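FAQ: What does the model actually see?

It sees only this:
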Amino acid sequence: MRLVLDTNFIIDIMKFKIDLWASEYELYTFSEVLKELEKIAKTNAHDAKFARLALQHVKGIKIINGEGRSVDDMLFNASKNKINIIATNDAALRKKIKSIGGRVAFIRQRKYVVIS
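And it is asked to produce this:
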């Protein structure tokens, strides 16, 4: 199974020190997610240090070239492929993906990654 990671999910696993790199899933993300991380890393936002840390760790993640659309649209389209599990903490996106029968992963209690 492939776990396709969203920007907020990557930042949160850095923030909460969740080791996803040793999981049995193949980790993927979109090139646009990396661009979002780079953009956040250059700001003074609270999550900037976690975005910088994430950019150091994404070397083990396979990159999918995006089509120039929004990341949420790309994640939604990727969820139609039953091999992909979309990892996001965005409640609206999770609900949208679940409505078409897709699978999602999210962080619960700042410790666990839950797949449903």
